[in-house]
Design a protein that fits this description.
The structure holds six protein chains of six kinds.
Chain A lengths: L3 H22 L3 H21 L3 H25 L7
Helix pairs in contact in A: 1-2, 2-3
Chain B lengths: L7 H26 L3 H33 L5 H35 L10 H6 L1
Chain C lengths: L1 H25 L3 H26 L2 H27 L18
Helix pairs in contact in C: 1-2, 2-3
Classes of the chains: A mainly alpha, B mainly alpha, C mainly alpha, D mainly alpha, E mainly alpha, F mainly alpha.
Chain lengths: 84, 126, 102, 526, 117, 152
């Protein structure tokens, strides 16, 4: 029997995998950046559940605000849609 | 005095938790079911903020209970209350601003409200 | 005892997060996805508070504060980008003339 | 000359932190004066070279027992290497540090004039010193995670330097490719380190090898980690078939940087030999077993070496870009080192063959490392001087530079003779050792090595013929500026000393390195 | 310092014998002196006689147009080795994806060899 | 140059910016006592820079200031290492020595004060400065590059 805490963790991990898949699959780069934000958000949550607050704060600081900002700037500077 | 076999404080606590669950769930359903960005934004932001307020209130109440029960000696419970209050304050400051920025951005980006007949903002801008 | 109640609440919240990520995947336009992200942010902050009580660690609430503040910046950046561009994002035909002002 | 005890004690860490300090001082100083960074960089790199000399004295006097420096602890207090960051310096490490010290000093002096016209010089010197820090740290540390950190430092700094000349779009492309390669290889390196940490819970290389030995040799996971490590480090060294980014990066980097690039790439070789010998070649005297039967590993390294030698030199022969040609030669020469030491790895568990020719092969391979860094550094500097005067690297557009660029021509000739292995240059000594010992290992490979040497001579004859000989050009360029000539002269002087006294150099410099690699083997009394 | 004593070892001992670079350099110097002596006995001023052996440029000032460009050096070698050069040059595409695929191929091969051999 | 955002966002950014910066400072200064430390706090504080850049349009910061902060942080870090040179590089010779961060701590689980830890808080501060400077510079440079690019 899976305990409730394990269940929470399983769902969060599934969410990480799903959002990572969205990141790869999305052709619209701004949506991919949004999905990446969600991915790092859930990753931070996972670190949090694994009782690693140190890493969770680092992931929050870098993953939530700064990487998204950098990606947005990069997309702004280049083009929005991935084409190949 | 007790309500449903609980002390009034505990009853309030569980009630708050219930409200939190229900409203967060409503926010999620609204996000999924509503037709366009603006209605989704409205549902999601409003309900989840409201739900989160009640969750935070429940936590604060929980800290209060522990603090009172320990004869005001359990400083951890007190810190819980203060920090949760700070988190709530952060949430209350950021959520509406973010929602405003998103709504404004979507409007500027040219997303039309579905089923809307008049768009006064657009008329004003023009 | 009460900690288990918070665990139940967090179970609900995590399900809501999964539900919101459906909108993240399906959302026809980028603003929809941004709204979904914003919702997930709020839910995660709530979840962090709930789990913080469940584990009974004050520092975990601190992370919730950090996250509430930082996720807001993400939302702002996405909104800032969307303000300038059309939703369809057909980059070829677009001009960047709106930037010239300030 | 008496060296104060402070420097004697702290020499290992001072080697690393002096350029680090210089790197961070440079941008601050650069705000005050735009000419100051060059002096700061030269000062700190020279200081670092002096510390290398002090360190070398200490290491050689107690060879083959390594000098251990523990960060953050009083030496002598109960130091547990499991919890401490340690610098472990032995003969091989100090040899690599000497290479880096000489080449970086020459390159920084050379850069004084070379980048005089460019803006952002403080950043250039910062990155240059950071490259030196990365290379020094990689060869001096005893901790495999620190090795990864310094690997990344040198990769990132080199990437920034490759992209330094922003007026050229190609620089960005080359830097991007190099960045991609080094980042991905860094991830795999981290993965291999994760395997070690997961299995043994330690990061110190010596402790890992002992833990592996007491666990009864390398497990399958360790072997996978070995495969990752071999790939990553041979990529850093620029061996075929992972060489693709190196010609781009070498040729687009500014002149002085190409020279440093060679020395920094060879830290990859260092790390490869270090993992092969120290971790996987660990000999357990109690059970009489090695951690891994290194015969296969040796053959892998030999095959990589032969491929690099041959493909590198044949690709070099058809190049029209002078620096690209030299970059392919760098790949080709890397092959010699892999070949020499690969033979040593292959016969590690066979004492008879080891004493018969394995030791000589390793001497040749390691001697070739230092020779190559010197003469290839010199050649890149001369190519940079040609580029500085002509603003082109296309050999088709050059002729008759020897009429006016006299010093550059002489220096190029010395470098070309050395790389082609013409007696009495130093390249001949090391190649001689490699040929003779590899012939006993496998005659065909020795023949290929000699053929490659002939082709090397041929392609440098081509460069010499087309760039320096021939009719005087319409606007004959002046010779290179003084600071560039000084930088080249340093390398030429060292090359000539190495050429004329190979026996002395091998005895004093190379043998401690070989002994350091074979230390567990020798200590086991095989 | 550096443990230097003055019995400097000149030769490099290899399996086949001893290689003494200094001796070689001395011999080369002697050979050079002999060659120079012979050369100095030759007739001075042969350059003054113009157009000696016009098809050969030695001894005359070479016009720039008559200089063989670098790209044409070893043309025959490359032509003869074309069956080798075509695939090898074809692999150097300059495409980063190909770079990474080569790396992955090499890594797989090395891991398989290390684990199974 | 990028335009500032709407007035609501700007005023809210003005309120939240000091909050985030102070929180980052708290994480940095408490690094030796609670989870957090130089990098985490620096990243959070750099997010404050990112907030100002996005809300006000990136004209409020000068590159020179941030790069000086970065260099200063790195030098402070090395300096903190060099303090311990009497024993070894990075040795914590300031601990238990009195002075600013040198208060003694008794062995075991205690409520350690802020002024303990020797060179560790110094290093946290140094790393924090470096991370604020570095990440802030990245954000600033990228915002300038992305919004001044000519359409080709």
């Amino acid at each position: 029997m899976i305990s409730l805490a394990d269940g929470v963790q399983i769902v969060v991990l599934a969410g990480i995998v799903l959002s990572a898949l969205f990141v790869v699959r999305m052709r619209d780069l701004i949506s991919a950046a949004v999905a990446l934000g969600a991915c790092s958000l859930l990753l931070s949550l996972e670190f949090y559940i694994l009782q690693a607050p140190d890493v969770a704060i680092a992931e929050a600081g870098v993953g939530a605000a700064l990487t998204t900002a950098i990606f947005i700037f990069a997309i702004k500077g280049t083009q929005r849609r991935e084409d190949y | 005095m007790s309500i449903l076999g609980l002390s009034p404080l505990m009853f309030l606590f569980y009630l708050f938790l219930l409200v939190a669950i229900v409203f967060n769930g409503l926010g999620m359903i609204g996000l999924l079911r509503f037709p366009d960005v603006y209605t989704r934004l409205h549902a999601a932001t409003k309900c989840t903020t409201f739900g989160s307020i009640f969750l935070a209130l429940a936590v604060i109440g929980y800290g209060l209970i522990n603090w009172v029960r320990s004869d005001f000696a359990d400083t951890t419970a007190l810190t819980f209350m203060v920090h949760t209050f700070l988190a709530l304050a952060a949430l209350l400051l950021t959520n509406p601003t973010g929602a405003h920025a998103l709504a404004r951005a979507s409007h500027r980006a040219g997303v039309e409200p579905v089923m809307a007949v008049v768009d006064r903002l657009k008329e004003v801008k023009k | 005892m009460i900690e288990d109640t918070f665990l139940v609440v967090s179970g609900f919240l995590v399900l809501y997060i999964l539900g919101a990520s459906i909108r993240l995947a399906a959302g026809p336009t980028a603003p929809d996805r941004a709204v979904a992200l914003d919702t997930i942010n709020t839910l995660v902050v709530a979840l962090m508070i709930a789990l913080g009580v469940a584990y009974y660690e004050v520092i975990f609430i601190d992370i919730a504060i950090v996250y509430a503040l930082l996720s807001f910046i993400t939302t702002l950046y996405i909104a800032r980008y969307l303000e300038e561009r059309n939703v369809g994002g057909e980059a070829a035909g677009e001009t960047t003339g709106t930037e010239g002002g300030a | 000359m008496m060296v104060p005890e402070f420097f004697q004690d702290h020499a290992p860490i001072l080697v690393v932190i002096l350029p680090l300090l210089g790197a961070f001082l440079t941008p601050l100083i650069g705000k005050a004066s735009s000419r100051a960074p060059r002096y700061v960089a030269a000062l700190f790199l020279l200081g670092s070279l002096a510390m290398v000399a002090v360190l070398a004295d200490k290491v050689w006097s107690q060879s083959p027992i390594p000098v251990v420096y523990t960060l953050g602890a009083h030496s002598g207090s109960g130091i547990n290497p499991v919890f401490r960051i340690q610098l472990v310096v032995d003969g091989l490490g100090v040899l690599m540090a000497i290479i880096m010290g000489i080449v970086s000093t020459a390159a920084v002096l050379y850069s004084w004039s070379f980048i005089d016209k460019y803006s952002g010089q403080d950043k250039y010197y910062t990155l240059l010193q950071l490259t030196a820090v990365g290379a020094y740290g990689m060869v001096l540390t005893g901790d495999i995670f620190n090795l990864f950190v310094f690997f990344e430092i040198s990769s990132i700094a080199l990437c920034g330097l490759v992209a330094f000349r922003t007026e050229r779009g190609e620089s960005f492309e080359a830097a991007f490719k190099y960045m991609l390669y080094s980042t991905i290889s860094g991830v795999f390196l981290l993965f291999a380190i994760g395997i070690f940490y997961g299995e043994y819970g330690v990061l110190n290389m010596g402790v890992i090898s002992e833990a592996m030995s007491s666990a009864g040799g390398a497990s399958v996971l360790d072997k996978i980690a070995l495969g990752l490590l071999v790939t990553v480090f041979s990529l850093k060294a620029g061996s075929v078939p992972m060489h693709m980014a190196t010609p781009d990066a070498y040729s687009e980097a500014p002149g002085g940087i190409s020279a440093i690039f060679v020395a920094a790439s060879q830290t990859g070789l260092y790390a490869l030999f270090r993992t092969s010998f120290t971790i996987y070649g660990h000999y357990n005297p109690n059970t009489g077993a090695f951690n891994l039967d290194t015969y296969t590993l040796g053959w892998i390294v030999v095959i990589l070496g032969v491929l690099s030698m041959f493909i590198g030199v044949t690709m070099a022969l058809v190049q029209k870009d002078i620096k690209r040609l030299m970059a392919y030669h760098a790949i080709s020469q890397t092959g010699y080192m892999l070949l020499g030491v690969g033979v040593g790895i292959a016969v590690l568990s066979d004492p008879a063959k080891m004493t018969a020719f394995g030791v000589d092969a390793m001497r040749g391979g390691i001697f070739h490392i230092i020779n190559h860094a010197l003469y290839k550094g010199l050649l890149f500097l001369t190519a940079g001087a040609v580029f500085y005067r002509l603003q082109t690297r296309n050999l088709n557009e050059m002729h008759g530079l020897g009429h006016t660029m006299r010093f550059t021509t002489v220096f190029f000739m010395i470098g070309a003779l050395a790389i082609a292995g013409m007696p009495p240059m130093n390249g001949f000594s090391s190649k001689l050792l490699i040929y003779e010992s590899v012939y006993q290992f496998n005659p065909i490979i020795a023949v290929i090595a000699m053929l490659v040497s002939v082709l090397t001579l041929a392609s440098f004859v081509k460069v010499f013929y087309s760039a320096f000989l021939g009719p005087k050009p319409e606007n004959p360029p002046e010779d290179a500026p003084t600071s560039m000539l000084i930088g080249m002269t340093i390398l030429v002087a060292v090359i000539i000393v190495f050429s004329l006294f190979p026996g002395l150099v091998v005895e004093r410099l190379i043998d401690p390195a070989v002994r350091a690699l074979l230390f567990p083997w020798l200590a086991g009394g095989v | 310092m550096f443990g230097l004593n003055f019995d400097i070892k000149l030769g490099l001992d290899t399996d086949g014998g001893t290689w003494t670079a200094l001796l070689f350099a001395l011999m080369a110097l002697v050979a050079f002196i002999i060659a120079y002596a012979i050369r100095s006995r030759g007739i001075k001023g042969h350059k003054e006689r113009e157009h000696v052996g016009e098809p050969f440029y030695f001894g005359n000032i070479v016009p720039s147009s008559a200089w063989v460009k670098s790209g044409n050096v070893y043309w025959g070698f490359v032509k003869a080795m074309e069956r080798y050069y075509r695939p090898v040059r074809g692999e150097h595409t300059g495409n980063a994806n190909d770079y990474i695929s080569w790396m992955v191929v090499a890594m797989t091969a090395i891991i398989l060899m290390v684990v199974f051999l | 140059m990028m335009r500032p955002m709407s007035k609501i966002v700007r005023s809210m950014g003005g309120v939240l910016y000091p909050l985030i910066a102070v929180f980052g400072g708290y994480l940095i200064l408490h690094g030796h006592l609670t989870p957090g430390g130089g990098f985490q706090g620096g990243a959070v504080a750099a997010s404050a820079v990112a907030l100002v850049v996005v809300a006000y349009g990136g004209t409020l910061y000068k590159k020179g200031v941030l790069s000086t902060v970065e260099s200063f942080g790195l030098l402070l870090f090395l300096g903190a290492g060099l303090i311990g040179m009497s024993a070894a590089f990075f040795a914590n010779t300031l601990a238990n020595a009195g002075g600013l961060f040198g208060d003694a701590v008794s062995f075991g689980v205690t409520d350690a004060g802020l002024n303990t830890g020797g060179t560790v808080p110094l290093m946290n501060i140094a790393v924090g400065c470096e991370v604020i400077g570095g990440l802030g510079l990245i954000i600033l440079a990228l915002s300038k590059a992305a919004f001044t690019r000519e359409v080709d």
